[in-house]
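Researcher: Let's do a round of design. I'm pasting the structure tokens now; please hold your answer until I've finished.
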């Protein structure tokens, strides 16, 4: 379950000693809260601390001083030695077998998305040199499709950048413009936050989807910059990132509180764009003959340029 409180309201000190409320605090902000060289051990430890003894069926015979399960309890339930599990958490063994990882996923009560993520962390991959940032380019046909669709539509990149959008998407949220970033907007922009009646649930799902989208590819400069910036600027992001939740990028119902038309209940679809590295076509649509459909039609009318409104009136 993706839950959690808003976290501490204190902002961290940067390496120079000054507190900051800004993402770009200085030259050292990029390394804050990014996944280090022991990603597998970090993930196992974070998930272990979220499983209670009661959930795992472990008797509690004394006062416990650690959250969640102890290392030896995880090892016992997974059928491996405590020493071997300790080596996994400490990063001294980074290539366990798939069978071991699947046993750990069962003990840690991971769903299919999180299990796939864990298996990816344990895969034997050669270290690559630090890469230059990659520019994400939307296929021309998709750009035309986005502009033509009569529903709020935008293209979401692998790092949740908005790569293209149509006028109705911008009418739904002015932040849905090319060059924006969904994580920055939802965590750092009060106007965007006010769109979500259940902001805590929305942010939890957003971060879990981001971790699944990035996977184990954490040496990309774009990833390092974005996670470092948000970790410094948002206590809520820091809290969620430390949980290591993972969920697939897929469609879901969305509730919005729009400043002009009020409450909207929409369906959000996320469709993979073939031939791209993780780009998604995101489309919002209402159930037919509902109040939300009427409100979205009102937004669509307001989003039309004046010439289009006059032309439609003549043809009515």
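Researcher: That's everything. Go ahead.
Model: Designed sequence:
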């Amino acid at each position: 379950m993706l839950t959690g409180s808003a976290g501490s309201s204190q902002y961290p000190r940067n390496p120079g000693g000054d507190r900051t409320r800004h993402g770009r605090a200085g030259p050292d902000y990029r390394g804050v809260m990014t996944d280090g060289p022991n990603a597998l051990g970090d993930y196992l430890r974070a998930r272990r601390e979220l499983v209670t003894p009661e959930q795992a069926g472990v008797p509690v015979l004394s006062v416990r001083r650690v959250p969640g399960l102890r290392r030896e309890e995880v090892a016992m339930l997974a059928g491996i030695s405590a020493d071997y599990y300790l080596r996994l958490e400490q990063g001294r063994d980074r290539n366990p077998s798939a069978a071991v990882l699947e046993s750990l996923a069962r003990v840690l009560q991971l769903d299919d998305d999180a299990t796939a993520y864990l298996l990816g962390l344990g895969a034997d991959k050669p270290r690559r040199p630090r890469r230059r940032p990659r520019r994400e380019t939307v296929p021309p046909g998709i750009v035309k499709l986005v502009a033509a669709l009569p529903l709020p539509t935008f293209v979401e990149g692998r790092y949740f950048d908005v790569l293209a959008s149509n006028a109705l998407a911008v009418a739904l949220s002015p932040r849905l413009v090319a060059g924006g970033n969904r994580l920055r907007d939802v965590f750092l922009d009060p106007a965007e936050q006010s769109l979500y009646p259940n902001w805590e649930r929305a942010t939890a799902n957003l971060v879990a989807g981001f971790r699944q989208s990035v996977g184990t590819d954490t040496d990309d400069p774009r990833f390092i910059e974005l996670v470092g910036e948000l970790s410094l600027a948002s206590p809520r992001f820091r809290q969620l990132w430390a949980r290591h939740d993972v969920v697939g990028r897929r469609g879901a119902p969305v509730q919005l509180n729009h400043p002009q038309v009020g409450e909207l209940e929409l369906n959000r679809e996320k469709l993979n764009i073939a031939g791209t590295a993780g780009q998604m076509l995101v489309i919002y649509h209402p159930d037919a003959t509902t109040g939300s459909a009427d409100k979205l039609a009102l937004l669509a009318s307001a989003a039309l340029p004046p010439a289009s409104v006059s032309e439609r009136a003549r043809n009515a």
